[in-house]
Structures are given as structure tokens and as C-alpha cells.
Task: structure prediction
Amino acid sequence: MAREGALKATREDWDTDTVKHYVRFHGWGPACKDRAEGVRRAGRRSKEPLKYFTLCAGRAVDVFMLSRLGVLRVDVETNRLQGVCWCEVRDNEAAEIERSVGGVGFRGRLEDILLFEDDADTRRYTLDDEPEKRIRRKLNIKSLHEGLRGRFPFDILNLDFCGQFFPPDEPFSSPMLRLIDRMLEWQRDADDQSCDSFTLLLTSCIRKRRSQDAMAELTTRLHGNMKESPLFRAAYDSAFGGIDPQSLGERDLPAFFSVALPKVIASRARERQWSPIHKGTFIYTKRDPRTREFYRMLSWVAHFNRVTGQARKGNQRDPLYEKAITDAIAHGPVDVQKALSSRHVKREVKKDLDAVKEHRGKYWAAISGTSN
Amino acid sequence: MASTGAMKRPPKGEIRVSSKTLIHISQGIYRSTASTLRELVSNAYDVDATEVVITTNPPRFDHVTCTDNGAGMTLDAFIGLMDGGIGDSGKRVGKGLTAKLRRPVIGRIGIGLLAVAQLSNAFEVWSHHRDTETAFHGTVTLHDRLSDEADQVDPDTTEILPMGEYDTARIPFDPKRTGTTIVVSDVKRGFTRKHAPPTEFHAPPTDFRQFLDRCFSERRISSLGHYWELLWGLAVQCPIPYLPEGPTGEPPALAAASKRLNKQGLRLVVDQLRLWKPGPWQRLDGSANRNIEAHMAPFELDKPVAGKPLKVSGYLYAQNEAIKPTERRGVLVRIRDVGIGGYDRGFLDYDRASEGPRAHWISGELYVEQGLENALNVDRDSFNEMHPHYLYLQEQLHETLLPLFRGMQSGQRKRRAREHREQEEQSIQRLLGAIKDVTNVSFSFETAADDTGRLVRVDRKRRKIYVDEGAEWPSGSATAELAKLIAVARAVADSEPRKHARKRDEVFLHLLREVL
Result:
């Protein structure tokens, strides 16, 4: 019965990973502080806690960094972190998040939860009917879908994916892309319409094996943008020494995605009445512990503001959209490993990571008398 | 049945229990969620865990996890459990103490893991075993509607009933993760519905003192919701230390239990709230400021009953007001430091009716050191009330309660009398003040009978008011008191000069208002 070695240790030690923390420290932290100040300045929600959605790991360094920065607050009456909502598919990891962060947890694959669609079974039964396991499983996802939707909108969406946006054998409109669409819609359509702006922290990996359909589609779209927008064309030419996205994709895949991914997301956002403001792109290298293969990670940080009036579509020119994309090109991605080659920078990042861990230890000690 | 011959001996043999029984047991023997989770905590305690962390994912309550840092379980042990070892425990073989911390083993028959089946039909187990430095991951899926299926099976043809499937895989051992994690997914709807609030969820504070303050501010913890009840139930039932506050050393049984639980040092954290056992000194009145009279009565019992030793110690805390919250009224029996159910408000079937509200004034704990375990029902929430150990404990408890209640009754009478006297004194002082206001004379009372034969006489020269206590005042102390005060008011008014008839009436009315 036992399957020897079926599961291997794939846990990553985020507590000592200065590369990842560089992105948190220089990208996520400042953007989230901006968001917090914006919400508090707006007055209407100045006393409410910020709403933060995260795909954090068990030790939740991102959550405690934001808590240390004062972006996330601890309730004075209950001593619990406020406004944190998370999603995790791995049961033991979810247990650790619950233990360390609390908050409201959604256990399942984010794609399954967000992209759930009713079918005959889920329309016919409810969980109270105690249907068979197969249907119950679908109804559980429906319950997560409805529950998560009820939590929207969020002030900060931290979508720290470990998968890639355009995996091999997937169409251009991959589940991850449709997931982003759904989130943008839920941000827009939330019942109380209280969200005029939010911050997106989007991370995904870039692997050599990818969808060729998607690459072709992205290349075509970039070509189209260059035709339509002289500003975009000039920025692209200046950054990459030419206006051939296909050759950039073959030559420097991370650079290609550092433009293509924000462009695709920004385009879909404006169709859903959100206008992006580029805040930074980060690229770093990781190694798969199982295959020992190296791959790249891309992290994009952006603010989104609600656009009033009709959503822009297709070829309609949109100066804000153009600016966001040209900013993404002009400011280029930060090569994190290269930046960390400076001893001073590395020391600064490590110091902050240690301070976050100390802050987390104090929180844990305060809630349950443990600091491990 | 056809006869097989007049002289043939009727058959005899072993009595067997059908595996159906175990299936029915697995589907629900525990009365409350707290009792269900308590079994998981007890399992962790028995493998020397010093920390157990339970999460229930509030406010969704759609998953439950239980993680301990005990010795862990080997894959072979897990497979042994799955292949028919549930309910066949060897935990108590030997001295009945745990290997490392020498704790008294709680579990007897090894059905603790079945508690999970009451919460869900699916669960996963990760275990890192300290001694063998091995680890595994197991997935267990139980069949739906097991009880219905079991009823359909012909016991003559089937001996073993499959309850579900399991799958396992070895995983790399991680010494930092020694212990066991159980994750319950596909939680039964009843659990979610019971705990998820229909409106906004109010998370309890992560400080247990604040949690208790909130609980004690309510008449019933249940009014705060089932989730609060669950936390309270776990705090009361699990073998965890007392909240480190309050007097120590008295009574001895409590001091000994407190010392023992501290030494065993099990830390239990549920959804970020570290639970402690609430001690009797924690504001049983529900208000920190009231001046409440309280005392502790020790309980000791050490005697062989039905040939087996029965040793129980404990305390009964009594106060002169109802204990809040109601969940804390009564007596809690602990076996191996685990609470059996909650506080029994019936005091093991004591005739409470005759005690009236005084039955709400006592809260106690009985620590069973030897015996009584065979009287424990399988759910570990209740007793077989015909077992000789139970019957003897019941008798002894009732014998201890009787003088306690009588003492409380007498104390109650004395207190009422004292309160009455105080009230009377206050009324008199108020009336004397009012008399001074209208007559400018500071009178005092004399209770001696007056030789004039009058009920009340006012002597302005001596500044005395004589009240004949021996006269036939109306019956009932409060009525008599009122009558005397009215008579005094009349007498004082009448002591005014006769020519000022109007003034006499005004004085009377003024004093009457004060009296009434």
C-alpha cells in the first residue's frame, strides 16, 4: 500500500530567502503603504482594517511584513490580525497559515474556486441534502466560491502564484488569466462598490516550456500596440534596441514577459473598468528542488483605479493604459539577484527580514505563548 | 427451533461483537464537538505531546486540523490501525504510563481516531515518528452512510465490514515536524452549520483571561454561540494546566491537580487562543466588585468498593450567589485529569429540588485517582450509573453536599436576618433625621415599655422616643417594623402643641413620606 518516496520535500524556506524578501521590501511594502495611506486619507474607511488577500505560505512573511509596516492592524480587543484572507490548496500548509495568521481561509485551488460554474448537480442539490461524495465535492467548491465572492473587494490582492500564466498545451486564455479576469470583475462588482482603487502584487514563474499559442498571441498583440501607440513603440525601441517582440521572446524571455504580462493584465483590466499604474517589475531565478531545473520568476506591482463611465475596448486609445505599459518598459524589470550582489543592499534586506521575523515572533508569543 | 434430543447439552461458546457495532460507534458516540476534539487531544497526550494546535477555520468552519508535537506514529502502526486495529488498543499494556513523560495513559480501547469520523468522511494524516525517524502521509476516505449500510448486512455471512479506503505514502522525515497532523476536510454539514454564525462572526480574543471575562459576563456561554461553547468545553475537559492565577495550596486536591497538570505541561491552542483550565478562583460570581462570601469544602474518598480501590479527591466551592455562567455550576468528575462531559448540574443525581436556588451556588471538581474507569461509558462523557464505584461516589458526594447545603441555608438565613437588621437600622436613622428636620430635636429610641401604657411615647425633655416592643404589633417583621415607624411618626406629630393642629398634620405627613 505504501508508495515509497511518492512525496518529496518541496517546502521552501521563505524565512531565509533574501531574494524573495527583496521583492517584498522594495516592491510590495512601499506599494502597500501607499494603498493604506490612500484608504485612510479617503476618510470613508479610515477606521476599518485594510482588506488583504494573499496566497501566502505557512509562515506568512508577507502578512507580518505588512503588519510591521502598519498596513495590517491587530484588533485591540481580540489581539487578532484583521482583514487577512487567504487561499491554500495544501492541507498541511493551510493548517500552518491558520495557526500563524488566523484570518479567513479558503482551502482549495484558487482557479477551481474562482472559476466555478453551476451545473445540473450543483443547481439541484445543496450541502444540506447530504448528496454523494462527487456532488458534495462540487458543492464544497461552490460554497468556497460564494464565500470568497462575499469577501470582495480587497484593497490589496497578493497573487503570488507558483505556476506559469501560459503553460504548455493551454490556450492563450489560460485558467490563470481567466482567474485574474474574475477577480477584476469581483473587485468592480462588489456589493458595496466601496473599492475605487486597489493594489495588485502579481507573481508567476516563467519556464522554457510554455504555450506556443500564447507566445504567438502575445507577440501579435505587442506588434499591434506598437502600431497603435508611438509612445509605446519608442519606449520599446529604446529599451530593447528594436521593435521585434518575437526576437526578444527568443533572446530574453524574462524581459519579454516583463512587458507582455503587465500589458495583457492591463488590457483586461481596462475592459473591466480598471486603469493600472505601474509601480515596478522584478525578476529573479529559482531552482526546482525536484528537477534541479532553473527557472525565472516575475513579479509585477501595480495600483489600479476605477474608471468611471464606459469601459474602453479593443483599439480605443487610452492614455492611462499607454502610460502604464510604457512605464513598465521604461523602468524595466529589476534583476533581484544582481541587485543583491551589493553587500549593502543584501544587508539591508536581510536586516528587514530579521525584523519581520522578530515582529512575527512577538505576535505569536502574544497570542499563544509560543514564538517558534 | 427443532429439538435435537432431550439429553443433548445446549450449546455454549464465545460471545462476539459484530464489526457493525464499531461502525455504528464510529458514526457518533460523542455528544458534543468539544468531546470529539478532546479525544484527539487525549491521543496526542498519550504520545507525550507538549503542544496540540487545533484549527477550525472560523468563520467558515469547513476544515479542522489537529497538530501535535508528540512521538508521532509509524506507517506500520497506522496501517495496523486501518487494518482492524481501531478499538484494539494496547496503550494500557504495562504500567499504563507514557514512554517519555510518564503520564498516565488516557486512552483504553483505541477508538480516539474514530472521533474524526464524527466530523467528516475524509481525513488526512501526516506523521513524523521520532524514534524510527520515518514519516508518512495517509489519506482516509470513509464510505458515506456507513450506519445504513451496516444495517443491511447479514451478520451470519459477513464478519468484516469495510468502512472505507486508505492510501499511504512515505515522506521524508523532518525532525522539526515530529508528531502528527490530522486534517479533516469535507467536514460534515452539521459541524459547519452549528458553528458558522448566521450573521457577523465575533472572534474570541486570543488572551484567555479576556475570553473568560467575556464568558463570565454572560449568564450562559451558549448565548455567545456554539463556537464559544466549544472552546469552553475543551478548556474544561482537556488535561491542560490551570490558568496561573489565584490562591494556591488550598484545597490540597486542587493544589495537587494544579501541580500535576503544570508538570505534564500540555499546551493546547485552538484557533490562536491558548486554552487554560479555569480555576475556582476565577470570578465565579461574574462580577469582580461584589463582596461575595465563599468557601471551599474538600472532598476525600479512599476505600475499596466491590473489591477494587476507589480513590477520589476534590473540592466543592460554594458562594452565597448564583455562579455565572451556568455551564460552571455543578460538579465535574475528572479521570486521569480529563473532564467527563461538562460540569454536572445535577451533582450525580442529587435531589436539587429541595435546595432551590442554592443548587446554583456550588461548583466543584472531583479528581479520580483510582477506580471508576470501568463505570465510564465508551463516549467518555457519561457513566454507567449502576456501577458500584459510581454508586459509592454518588453516595459520598451527596453526603458531603447535604451539610454544605444546610450550612448554606443557615448562612442564607443569617445573612437575611443581618440584612434585615441593617435595613431596619437605616430606616430608623432616616426617620430620626427627618424628625430632627421638623422638630429641631435630636431624638434617640428606647425600646423599653412605657408606664403610661402607650405604644409610643415622645419625651421631648429627655429627647427619647419610647417604643413598646412587647405590644401586639402586626405579624410579620417587615409589617411590624412599618407599623412601628408610622406610630412613631404619629407620636412625634402629636407631641407638637395642640393649638397647632395644622402643623401636627403636616409633621405627620412629612414623616410618613419618609417612612414610606
User: Anything to note?
Assistant: The longest helix of chain B spans residues 388-439. Chain B has twelve helices and 16 strands. Chain B has a mean pLDDT of 83.
